[in-house]
Amino acid sequence: MMFKLVTYSFLISVSLSSCIPAYSASSKEYNQAKVNFTKKKAFVVNKELKTEFNILKHSDIYEIVEDSTDAARITLYPMKTHTPPCGNPMIGSMITVGLLPSGFPYDISYSYDVAENSTTKKYQYQLQVYQSLWLFNIFRLGKTFSKQSGKALLGSYIASNK
Q1: Other CB atoms within 10 Å distance of the CB of residue 78
Q2: Is 131 within 8 Å of 26 (Cβ atoms)?
């Protein structure tokens, strides 16, 4: 009895830890997006929204500064994440101990205001990021949610300013 319990506990823990997440911007051209414009200096008013701030920082759209003098002031809004309402994408990866890849799409409503020279402009983007769960994602460890969402934000920013 004890052997079965230990075996099952081991198998469950291995299956749960074998699903290593990696993220990518859903639009392939956004993965290749590069900053080809002059970046404005910007001061972020509410850095306490850590996820939103990290996404903005990784997008590299603005030169984030610590002094609000001579810089645009950015106010971030809490992002809204929409995911499919049913199903668990991890089940296939868990049952096969991470050998079968599975994925999960994220649709993110990301918005912020930029106040500059007594005018305020609102920016709102729909970011699409895809989470992959797979054992071999161990070779893709740099593909974090913040970095890939930042790439999606940069791509959306460039596409909206063409």
Answers
A1: 11
A2: no
Beta strands in 9-118 (DSSP E): 20-25, 41-44, 63-64, 72-76, 80-82, 102-116
Q: Tell me: the pLDDT tens digits for 123-158?
A: 999 999 988 877 777 777 778 889 999 999 999 999
Q: Show the tokens assigned to 63.
A: 């030169």
What is the DSSP-derived secondary structure letter of residue 39? P
Query: What phi, psi does 133 have (nearest 5°)?
Result: -115, 115
Q: Which residues pair with 43 in a beta bridge?
A: 73
- 33's tokens: 């997006």
Please report, in angstroms and rounded to a whole number, the separation of the first and last CA atoms in the chain: 66
Token pair recorded at residue 36:
């080809």
Closest CA to 108 of 55, 61, 58: 55
Q: Is the pLDDT of residue 115 over 90?
A: yes
Q: How many other C-beta atoms are found inside a 10 Å radius of the C-beta of residue 74?
A: 23
Residue type for position 101: P
* pLDDT exceeds 60 at position 87: no
Nearest residue to 107 via CA among 132, 131, 83, 133: 83
